[in-house]
Amino acid sequence: MSAKKADKKKAAANEGPQKKLIASNKRALHDYFIDQTWEAGIVLTGTEVKSLRDRGASLIDGYCYVDAGEVWMDNAHIAPYVKGTWTNHAARRKRKLLMHKQEIEKLASKSREKGFTIVPLEMYFLGSHAKVKIGLARGKKEWDKRQTLREKQDLREAQRAMRQRELA
After folding, report:
1. Tens of pLDDT along 107-116?
2. Would you kindly state where each structural domain of the chain is located, as residue ranges?
3. The whole model's pTM is what?
4. Quick one: which of 73, 19, 24, 15 has its CA closest to 44?
5. How far apart are CA 61 and CA 77, in angstroms?
6. What is the tens place of the pLDDT at every residue in 5-43?
7. Which CATH class is domain 18-140?
8. β 19-24/116-126 pair status
9. Cα dist from 19 to 25, 91, 126, 132, 133, whole Å
C-alpha cells in the first residue's frame, strides 16, 4: 500500500463516523428563525430503519414536543418499507427522541415561552445510528420570509457576477 493511501485511511479513521443525510426540512428554515439546535437519537422499529436506508422520509409537516420529561417527534413521515410484511410500521406515528435529561429540561423551559416551537431540521445516519437534528424555532412574519428570499437572491446574483468576472 502506498503512503498516500495509508494517510487517507488514517485520516478517515480519525474523523469518526460519517454523517449520511436522509432528509432535511427546508420548509422549517423558510418559516422559522432557528435559535438553537440539538442532536437526538430516534427510537425506531426494524422496518423504519430499512426504509430510512432507502431514503424514504420527509420532515416537512413534523413537529416535536416535550411530554412528561420525554421528547416526542410527531407527524414526520417515514415511508412503509416496500418489502415489509404485516409487521410494517405506520408512516406518521409518534417517535420518541433520545436526549439527556438536562437537555430535555432546557428545551422544555424554552419551548414553553410564547412564540417558540420545536421542529425537526435534519434526519441522518451517524455511523449506524439514526439521528435527528431538532431546533428551537420562532415563527417568521410574511415580510421576514420575503426579506430572507431577497437576501438569498442577492447573494446568488453577486456570486454569479463574481464567477463571470473571473472567467473574463
Report:
1. 888 888 888 8
2. 18-140
3. 0.72
4. 73
5. 8
6. 666 666 555 676 788 888 888 888 878 888 888 898 888
7. mainly beta
8. antiparallel
9. 16, 24, 5, 11, 12
